[in-house]
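fold-stage: in
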Amino acid sequence: MADVTLPVKPSPYPLEEPGLWVERIGDRVFAEGTPALFLDRDGTINVDTDYPSDPADIVLRDDIVPVIEAANRGKIPVVVVTNQSGIARGYLGWDEFAAVNGRVLDLLRDGNVFVDMVVACAYHEAGTGPLAIPDHPMRKPNPGMLLEAATRLGLDLERSLIVGDKSADMVAGQRAGLARGWLVDGEATSQAGFEILPLRDRDDQKRLLAAIEALQSHLN
């Protein structure tokens, strides 16, 4: 009896590979060489609940909607780049990620703001099966997710900005060729041509908003 090969059921999610989610949201078109605002998700856009898997637990940080609003107003692409090692570790799956991510996007829309792309990396050395890859090029602090977004959207990385709550976010920005990043509850520092600014209070937020508005002025 001949072997029968069953067809592989396609994933309902925008998975480029087992551990890489790349979702284009909306249909805004950007000129080649436009800078972007890169945002980490958990701890930056929403309050970090430690491997979030329940949409009901998602709460946005108070300071993030005005930041995304400024980018939207200035026609600056907003790209979420998020490590999701909880998937590799078995704490949640892509189903739960999709539900939580959808809730984040819905809450942002309720605030009349939106993102243009979500890139998520589930690879981690502590994972199992195809997700058990140490130091995967897409996982921050490696720059792969930023480079992937840049290729797809035609971004100018050197003038782009990144906001995150971990040093890995800043290192990923630096390795991708960005010049500046904002570290949630962090301290100001500079190294190897990369400037890190804090995002702790309203004055820090104003400086970030001014930097986004400056990007807009170069596009006009």
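fold-stage: in (second)
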Amino acid sequence: MKFRTYITAVLFSIALFTQALGQVTESPRVEERSVQDVSIKKVELTDQYTIIYLQYIDRQREAPGLPFPGMKSQGASIWLDPETRLYKPGEINTKFKLIKAENIPTKSDRMPVKGGQVVDFVAYFERLTPGIEVFDFYEGRATNPGERTWNFYGVHIKNPKNRISEKPAKLPEKPKPVTPEKAEPLEKPREPELIENPEELDEKRMLSEPSFGQLQGTVYDAVTNEPLTASIQYVENGDSLTIYSSSGSFRVGVDLSKTYSFQVAAKGYFGESLELNPKDSSGHQLFNKNIYLRPIQVGASMAMGNIYFETGKYGLLPESFPELQRLLNLMKDNPGLGIRIEGHTDNVGDFDKNLELSKQRAEAVKGYLVSKGVKPERIEARGYGSTRPIAKDQSEAERSRNRRVEVVITQE
């Protein structure tokens, strides 16, 4: 009996000791990351911190902007943004601050690194609420041209909801005998604090950060509804940023005071544009948007919703250039592709003039592509005037839908 009691005590002590050290997840599974240079090697949870061990490898890659094509970067400088946060996926207000970092600067200084150099560093965050076993590591948005942020989405760790209390409850001291007239009520021993409702703690962590929001979603095949490997490109503070997603899922931090235009692309599919104006979001910080891309095949068509002309004319307006660039990229990425550009108008005005105007607008789009190097024999231009409406043409909103440019695949 004594031996069994001894074994039980030893096992209990080991459990407490292990818990005091915290949960450790080696090489956690990460669903997506924004760059390949940085990886998470380990996540350790202690009573006070969420400790993330990271490794940066300066890969000698082709560097845009260097004077000769194919030149490799000879190094860079790195730092960790002090505003880096951990988030519970889908809950923008459940966030955990960066406390400190080791072996990497977190202020205005930069750490220079040479091509091929490996840097191991550690980031300490507020303790994740027990029960959160998937989190996002979000460094933020690049503020200067050439900067790249380190973002990890869907980091899976061990962090069970019901944790053993690190400190066993202290037993109350045995009260000393006292006479009845001097007796005082004994204070009830305090129970150890166990986190039974993580949501209550999440509420305490909710911080007001009105300038920050997040766009998230998944890119799908519009025919099969299967997720696609895709890229999401956008411009922020003059810097062109691209997120690559092998699973189709994406998360992008946005400034709620700015307007964004996202270009979504996948090999073998028509691209799509997504406009986001957070300031019209009525205070929401989290935006959910799934994208459905159609496969490129003969006969498939794509409406070019953001090509604009002057009223009654065929001159392209500057607002059209992002959409035209998307079409140009499609032609360059698929050198065997042949297309037909179709111009359409509403039914207001003279029928013959509308027919001619629609042909001129289709020719204007073709002319843009040819001026950028696309062979003219790959492009056919036609005008249909008001003969193929997609709405009834009875209201301004309906007539606006009918004034459009479409692209039809004629050859793969």
